[in-house]
Design brief:
The protein is α+β, with helices and mostly antiparallel strands. The chain is about 20% helix and about 30% strand. Helix 4 (about 170-185) crosses helix 11 (about 520-535). It comes from Xanthocytophaga flava. Pfam families: SASA (PF03629).
């Protein structure tokens, strides 16, 4: 691993040490610069070289250091464009179609990563009408590193359009669309996110100084990966052999001659969570027959399968044509000449689903066989058969080795290279992966925010985040909840200045950790931005608990952020529980009294505490303000929670 790191840095700086001027990949055609601020521009060239930039009829210069790095700052520019920026040393780079407006980092885990084309066609109409050259998006490739990197790999800046918008982060797009409708200035979205990741991975190791456990984990992980690379590959080979031995179909279910009369049928693309396989994690084989003519064959073909959750090995006529790990990676496999034949051809896919979803779940238009100069749709009925459940399979040794969930790895790989690009602020959607240690998140999350602000050196820029949605089974009785404790940690983070929270306790889905309603998430974040980042006089949040007063057998609650008044969506308030000194909560009645809530239960004559929406998936939370922002779940007690000692 040490040798690999050395090679990486040699390759990173080889262009700068021995070639002509380069610029960081963030700076490319179609980019958006932050308005009304000095914008940093940086790159590499020969050590000691003089780099000249022309921008807005003004010339700027910088001299590279002994490593060949250079950086300079452009004068603040109001919103506008398109403009051109020219960089000159021995060669010349011209960056065109630059807009100046508002730039936001869009980070977190999968609910921020979730693209417009990953939502079961819910937003097809929005995509079709999305053309707007003033909304632009750049995706940062998933990257981990044990040291802060200087450069990232990107997809390039893309303008919103029916062709490009499907690949945009859905939350980020709807956030930008709402902001643009009010500000009428260009909006730039830097999408740097990774599904299933923890906050400590997005924080620098220096920022985690107070967390001894993460310092130790980071040190141990560095030692592990530097010393055990060859051993890990041996373990992985053994794992693959054991996995094949437990896979009932590993030697024959890909064969064209296989009898499949006992196989079932389902439509693809599809997410298994919404089919009869909703409880299955493990190995499932899929098969589809395709009939081809002589005109369809004779040349290399391409099999497009879209995205597959989580891993696949794909065969055509019994021969392996590809294999990929990663639920969000597009599968495009080349089929060698002569492998296809006239008549029946069999595509067989061994899918390994390790958690949640499963299956071919991308867009139908991407599920095609490209051959003979035409595209043959593979959407529709596929045969399937369950081979083995995940609980009976060996654990992939690469899961821990390749996991992004080690301290500082994502900060180093996906945030550090963005600094000090000019930004307005950050929108953040994460927390699910830290829910089992929610008490720690009370400190960890503010630490991460402060760390980013310290490193960007832009002051207390706006940091807006999404509170966890309702998810999992509904509890019939009041109970403890790590997700509720995580939401509480998110509320407490609002004590940091210039922060805002979008509560979405009303738009989650019990059976899907990726709720489809990203429109309201983006809009609620945008209302936070309008209030906190742009100073508009708008209601931006739902009611937040402030205090309680015990009045005999009832408890009276007061709130902040009530807007123009409290509102119950329904004939009566729901979601409240109340407890006495025995700390046993029971469902309670509640009513609005002016700008306060009165809570009681005939079962509790001497109440001491109230909870609202305190569950993984609280049912019927219907307290809002008149502006229809939902109240955040809360508790009035400070009793020890279930994650306090984790």
């Amino acid at each position: 691993m040490k040798k690999l790191l050395l090679l990486f840095f040699i390759s990173l700086f080889s262009a700068s040490l021995f070639a002509t001027v380069k610029v960081a990949s963030l700076f490319s055609d179609g980019m958006v610069l932050q308005r009304n601020t000095r914008n940093a521009v940086w790159g590499w060239a020969t050590p000691g070289a003089l780099v000249t930039i022309t921008w807005q009829n003004k010339t700027y210069t910088a001299t590279t250091d002994n490593m060949g790095s250079w950086m300079l700052y452009l004068d603040a520019t109001p919103a506008g464009g398109p403009y051109t920026l020219t960089i000159t040393e021995k060669n010349q780079i011209q960056i065109n179609d630059i807009l100046v407006g508002e730039v936001w980092i869009c980070s977190g885990q999968s609910n921020m990563e979730w693209r417009m084309n990953m939502l079961n066609h819910k937003y097809d109409t929005d995509i079709a009408s999305s053309s707007n050259s003033h909304i632009r998006h750049i995706k940062i490739k998933n990257t981990t590193s044990i040291v802060p990197l200087k450069e990232v790999t990107t997809s390039g800046w893309k303008s919103a359009s029916p062709e490009n918008t499907p690949e945009f982060s859905a939350v980020a797009y709807f956030f930008a669309r709402e902001l643009y409708s009010k500000l009428k200035v260009p909006i730039g979205l830097i999408s740097s996110n990774w599904g299933g990741t923890v906050a400590q991975a997005w924080t620098s190791i220096e920022g985690l100084e107070r967390f001894a456990n993460y310092q130790t984990e980071y040190t141990n992980w560095k030692t592990q990966i530097s010393g055990n690379a060859m051993e890990m590959e041996k373990q992985y080979a053994a794992y693959q052999a054991e996995l094949a031995s437990k896979d009932k179909g590993s030697k024959k279910w890909m064969l064209p001659s296989l009898a499949t009369t006992d196989w079932k049928t389902m439509s693809m693309p599809n997410n298994w969570e919404h089919t009869e396989l909703d409880t299955i994690d493990g190995i499932v084989w899929l098969r589809k027959e395709v009939t081809l003519s002589k005109a369809d064959i004779g040349k290399a073909a391409i099999l497009h399968l879209g995205t597959i959750d989580d891993e696949d090995i794909t065969y055509v006529n019994g021969i392996q044509v590809g294999a990929t790990e990663g639920y969000n990676s597009e599968r495009n496999y080349t089929i060698k000449e002569k492998l296809l034949k006239p008549g029946k051809n069999v595509i067989a896919i061994r899918v390994l689903d390790t958690y949640g979803g499963g299956g071919l779940w991308g867009e139908a238009k991407k599920l095609v066989l490209e051959t003979g100069g035409k595209q043959i749709s593979l959407a529709g009925d596929w045969q399937y058969k369950v081979s083995e459940e995940y609980k009976n399979l060996p654990r992939n040794p690469r899961i821990d080795m390749n996991s992004p969930n080690h301290p500082a790895l994502l900060f180093n790989g996906m945030i550090a290279p963005l600094i000090p690009y000019g930004i307005k602020g950050v929108i953040w959607y994460q927390g699910e992966s830290n829910a089992d240690r929610a008490y720690e998140y009370q400190t960890l999350f503010p630490t991460m925010i402060t760390d980013w602000r310290n490193r960007w050196k832009l002051g207390e820029f706006p940091f807006l985040f999404v509170q966890l949605a309702n998810f999992m089974k509904v509890s019939s009785e009041p109970s403890e909840s790590d997700w509720a404790e995580l939401r509480e940690a998110q509320v407490k983070t609002l004590s940091l200045p210039v922060t805002g929270m979008a509560c979405i306790i009303d738009i989650g889905e019990a059976e899907d950790i990726h709720p489809k309603n990203k429109l309201d998430v983006g809009k609620r974040l945008a209302f936070n931005a309008r209030k906190i980042a742009y100073g508009e006089d708008v209601v931006h949040s739902g009611p937040l608990y402030f205090s309680q007063n015990i009045e005999g057998d009832k408890i009276r609650l007061t709130f902040t952020n009530i807007g123009t008044g409290l509102l119950a969506k329904g004939p009566e308030l729901r979601g409240f529980a109340i407890a006495g000194e025995d700390r046993k909560f029971v469902w309670a009645q509640a009513r609005i009294d002016g700008n306060q809530i009165v809570v009681w239960s005939d079962k509790v004559t001497k109440p001491v505490a109230v909870r609202y929406g305190w569950a993984n998936n609280p049912e019927g939370c219907n307290l809002y303000n008149v502006e229809e922002f939902p109240a955040s779940p809360f508790r009035t007690d400070e009793w020890k929670g279930i994650t306090a000692d984790r």
